[in-house]
Amino acid sequence: MYDFLIVGCGFAGAVLAERLADAGKRVLLVDKRDHIAGNAYDYYNKDGILIHKYGPHIFHTNSEEVFKYLSLFTEWRPYEHRVLGSVDGQLVPIPINLTTINKLYGRSLTSDEVKDFLASKAEERRPVLTSEDVVLNAVGKELYEKFFRGYTRKQWDLDPSELDASVTARVPTRTNSDDRYFTDTYQAMPTNGYTEMFKKMLTHKSIHVMLNTDYRDITEIIPHKKLIYTGPVDAFFDYRFGKLPYRSINFRFETLDRENYQPTGTVNYPTSNLYTRITEFKHLTGQTHHKTAIVYEYPTAEGDPYYPIPRKENQEVYNQYRKLAEEEKDVYFTGRLGTYKYYNMDQVVAQSLALFRKIIKEDLDGLQQ
């Protein structure tokens, strides 16, 4: 008898497995795939270069709790991610900053001057409801067309005017020359990769891992008291209210017989090409190798569900599933797919740590009754 059957071996499931095992619970962790670590899975390709199978995963967080927790299972390599955009035939920093504006417009503005410059370009939108509203409010139509509209259409197959404001609100506009993609307090990569971190997370003797396993095939035959589900919430309920839409990505990997390919970890292509971006893994991992590996990303509607699509009508469908989820006895739904929310890795870890505390409190309350 297991105390918990956990479905999905990404961050959401693995963190809960580790915490619950540490608290004395017996845990069975299952995943349909043939590996642990979910979408964060990394491995050495045939040329010996460490790559991320499901696209670049760059760790950053403002949460001391999350960083300290993951530090139990890995050492870190300091890394601040930088992104360039291929715009008007040149590479400029993304998010838009002082350097971006000066390069694009052939100016030499100061920080104060660029504030006035952007204010002169901005188009006031009230209320701010969509991703288009966010960008036009901040930088106006011209920069919106150069940086956001094409990229968003490729990524989501929707115009920014059709997407929730939260999508482009994730990308700030800066009036200084800070060219880091993230400004979080903690920015680092696991020294030996994510898969090694997950291996250490799952070493507890009370955790059993079954890969290549659909939980539906074993849920009736392996006894367990409670279920934690991190898969797509609509699939759990057999799509009763219809399929929730997700975006997926087709990845095209290349190994090149040269030491480096591009000046930063990622280069975005907002208006040109069918792919959204190219990432070169050695920038992220710090690996020294005489060859280099890159990945092109082609967003698609088909394939593994990666990104819940933030739109009002999708949220309304999810809310119907959430009501069903809340009625399930001894079943917990968590993670990006289980709660249909576009979380970063650190947010998923924080969510799992919070759910763990809730479960333990329920246990204690049950004992006291």
TrEMBL record:
Its EC number is 5.4.99.9. This is UDP-galactopyranose mutase. SUPFAM superfamilies: FAD-linked reductases, C-terminal domain, Nucleotide-binding domain. One of its GO terms (molecular function) is UDP-galactopyranose mutase activity. The keyword Isomerase applies. It comes from Chryseobacterium camelliae. The keyword Isomerase applies. Its cofactor is FAD. PANTHER family: UDP-GALACTOPYRANOSE MUTASE. Keywords: FAD, Flavoprotein, Isomerase. Belongs to the UDP-galactopyranose/dTDP-fucopyranose mutase family. Residues 146-342 form the UDP-galactopyranose mutase C-terminal domain.
